[in-house]
Amino acid sequence: MLLYRWLNEATNSRGTAKALVYRDTYLSWRGLQHRVERRAQEFLAMGIERGHWVGLMLGNVPDFAILALALSKIGAVVVPMDPTTGVRDLTLFLEVAPLRALITRPRGGNELPSGNPPVTNIQRGRRRLEPESRRRLQGTLLTCSIYRCDEDPPGEAEVVLLTADSSGDPKGVMRTAANLEASCQSLAECLDVTAEDRILSTVPLFAAYGFDLGLALALRYGATLYLEDEVSPRRIVKLLREQEVDLLPATPPLYATLAKLPTARPVKTKGARFLATGAPLSTATADAFRERWGVRIIPMYHTTEAGPISCDRKGLAPETVGKLLPGVNLRLGPADAEGRSPIWVRTASAALHSVSTVESGAQDGPAKPSKGTSSEASPKASKKASSKAQAAAHVPIGSFDADGYLRTGDLGSLDKQGRLTLLGREDDLVKVEGKRVALGEVEGCLESYPKVRAAQARVYVDEHGSAMVIASVVCSARCPAEEIIDHCARNLAPYKVPRRIEFLSSLPSP
Q1: Left if phi > 0, otherwise alpha if psi is -120 to 50, otherwise beta: which for 167?
Q2: Largest CA distance in the chain
């Protein structure tokens, strides 16, 4: 019920001030609370109660915020979901997540799963996926599918944020109220967030980065949240200028595009903070943006499991992700031949529990309390940390060791100033559009096509910093690239589908 409590506090202190702005309309804090109360009553009438998990398969629209807050009011658990989620990933998650309801917009030809799907690699008990009923939310085009849910939810959670595990399958990260409080407090201390701030959310609210620096931060401090569902660079430029946006969480590809717009001019908003995460920020992009807009981009390290980890508040070293935020402890594992070390973190914003499609035997329970915080790692501490990390090498990625450190799966290095640089992953996960993609999953999908004998997937980054999946294939019979791409589009989420197919007689050696 934390999100609703934040709404109450903001309404009491901000009243008629703008809470949500979407296109040419806005809701005041009182108006937002009024709509939330009505939706909460509607949910109760549907049989949705305290503790029930409810999926919101929506983009950056006011309904997302209203429904999330209504669910929080009745004590239900909010499960934000990508509207473009493929049928396979949706089926996998529904089989293991105790969803009581799923709210969606019309999906066209990409229908929701129903009945029992083919056998997958899931090693847990199966759930019946066909909903008991479907209802239309009053005054909207939104459909609420109600599922039978006999099992108890696996632990306390305020929100469950989806990501991908090391195999590429969906994983639900269970954030508690304490996790959200710690995340917002850490961000506010670093970014000087106040009720007077205007936050422009171009990153999807269903993504952890967008949720933490969009809806959660605005609610916690009573700031105004501007929502953009279909991101248009020219529309972003207009908002930045006319609305005097103070805080912009975005991705490096968007900044690269904004830096090249002919209409780009320095912003006049004092103290504007433009954040970048979800992909590497190049020095060229950072320099070009500063030259055209007069603002330094602030690189940030943020993960779904741990929340905000580090930030370069002054934007002086875009090739790094800055120093650790307050309350974050860092430990680096033994470095490989390229000088890359596994990154382990301990922070109050890290979620201790998750639900995954494959049970890995990972330690997924409460970690030991933190004994303090550290913003830098001394050589002596680094040696100790390395030995501990080596001893805990059996801990799966995304899980905690006995000392409460999360193995993030990221690789990095720490300079003498205590700034962290990200240098890749321990597994084959890559970031595309700010979302995790397992290249092995893409290769498996390609090789499941009858005419493809072998496949190799990789990520290509264009001059704007945008990443896309491309693939090399060896075929047993002649077939056009469109045929293979269509097969992938039927089985993978859009951002996982290869944009280009290269035909080879044999695959290159790894």
Answers
A1: alpha
A2: 68
Tokens describing residue 48: 């949705």
For residue 374, the model assigns a pLDDT of 38
- Side-chain half-sphere exposure of 329, counting CA atoms within 13 A: 18
Report the distance separating Cα 120 and Cα 503, nearest Å.
Answer: 29
Contact 28, 11 (CB under 8 A): no
Where do the domains of the chain lie? Answer: 430-503
Q: Virtual CA dihedral for 212, 217, 219, 223, nearest 10 degrees? A: -140
CA–CA separation, 55 and 102 (whole Å): 4
Cα–Cα distance, 347 to 28 (Å, whole number)? 34
CATH of domain 430-503: 3.30.300.30
Pairing label, strands 159-164, 170-175: antiparallel
Our CA angle for 167, 169, 175, nearest 5°, is: 110
The kind and range of the H/E element at 445 are helix 439-447
At a CB cut-off of 8 Å and minimum separation 6, what does 322 contact?
Answer: 298, 299, 300, 301, 310, 311, 312, 313, 419, 420
User: Cα angle vertex 432, ends 430, 437, to 5°?
Assistant: 45
**129 vs 132: CA distance, rounded Å:** 9
> For every residue of 66-84, which 3-state class applies, written as one string?
HHHHHHHHCCCEEEECCCC
What's the predicted TM-score (pTM) here? 0.84
What distance in Å separates the CA atoms of residue 323 and residue 316, rounded to the nearest whole number? 12
Map tokens 């006999």 to a residue. Answer: 150
Q: Rounded CA gap, 301 and 209, in Å?
A: 10
Alpha helix positions (H), 101-227: 177-191, 208-210, 217-221
3-class secondary structure, 265: coil
Tell me the β-bridge partners of 412: 341, 422
Q: Is 462 buried (19+), middle (13-18) or exposed (0-12) by CB count in 10 A?
A: exposed
How far apart CA 506 and CA 510 sit, in angstroms, is 12
Q: Give the confidence band of 474 by pLDDT, cuts at 50, 70, 90.
A: very high
Asked if residue 206 lies in contact with residue 102, where contact means CB atoms within 8 angstroms, the answer is no
Query: How much is the average pLDDT of 244-258?
Result: 91
Nearest to 433 by CA among 202, 183, 166, 161: 202
pLDDT over 70, % of the chain: 87
**Distance between CA atoms of residues 362 and 401, nearest Å:** 9
SS3 272: coil
Q: Which residue has the tokens 């990520």?
A: 459
